[in-house]
Write a structure and sequence with these properties.
alpha/beta; globular; Metallo-beta-lactamase, Chain A; six-stranded mixed beta sheet; 230 residues; single chain; 13 strands; binds zinc ion
Length: 230
């Protein structure tokens, strides 16, 4: 249930947590909002039932509804509310091509919707990324999107500078991996190397919370890599 007293949690300058298990719904991933002068980007949107609650927190954080919804992949705990948030805000929905079909068809298995006992409402994204991408936040400032396949083929991570800190949105950096998701461990290892090279100061993760400073970010990613050695 929506607790009206709930407030967005500040992660960094202009970056807020606006959804998650103890904020909106136990089935939601951690959802973040990047509030820039030219774009307000919601990063993932939870499993679906809490669409209104997440939107409420996003508006509390930025003063206005999101202009963009970046989906880090098409799993239902990240993308379940996409169609409803699109209806309510008209925001631009961005997803990588390799996960776009899962969303467009409401694929129950690839989206893990069957695990959650929920249905994924199908949605055609507005922008389908063929590789990396970018969302302009202001003149000279942007949210960079990196294609980081592994957990799913179309998984992406994103990063931006916030108050001089490099904030990385690395949803589902930890996996899990399953044939039903189209996971690829080798690709995932390469993706994690890309994330390590960023040397981010803050990792805003999809299920395990927010890690800082840079040493903690590095340690968390390296732990994940170590736990999936063959
Ligand atoms: Zn996932």
């Amino acid at each position: 249930m929506i607790n009206k007293a709930r407030t967005p949690r500040k992660v960094a300058s202009g970056v807020f947590m606006v959804g998650g298990p103890d904020l909106t719904d136990p089935r939601d991933c951690l959802c973040y909002l990047v509030d820039g002068p030219q774009a307000r980007v919601l990063i993932d949107c939870g499993a679906g039932p809490s669409a209104a609650a997440i939107l409420d927190l996003a508006v509390k954080a930025a003063g206005k509804p999101p202009t963009h919804l970046l989906l880090t992949h098409a799993h239902i705990d990240h993308a379940g509310a996409a169609a409803e948030i699109k209806r309510r805000t008209g925001c631009r929905v961005v997803i990588h091509a390799d996960d776009a079909q899962v969303l467009a068809t409401g694929d129950m298995k690839r989206s893990a919707a069957d695990w959650y006992g929920l249905a994924l409402e199908s949605l055609e994204a507005d922008e389908v990324l063929a590789g990396d991408g970018v969302i302009v936040l202001s003149d000279g400032d942007e949210l960079s999107i990196l294609h980081t396949p592994g957990h799913t083929p179309g998984s992406v991570a994103a990063w931006c500078l916030a108050g001089g800190q490099k904030v990385l949105f690395g949803q589902d950096v930890h996996g899990p991996f399953a044939p039903a998701f189209g996971s690829d461990i080798e690709e995932w290892r390469e993706s994690m190397q890309r994330l390590l090279e960023l040397e981010a100061d803050v990792l805003a993760e999809g299920h395990f919370g927010v890690f800082r400073p840079a040493d903690e970010v590095k340690a968390f990613i390296e732990e994940q890599l170590a736990s999936h050695q063959e």
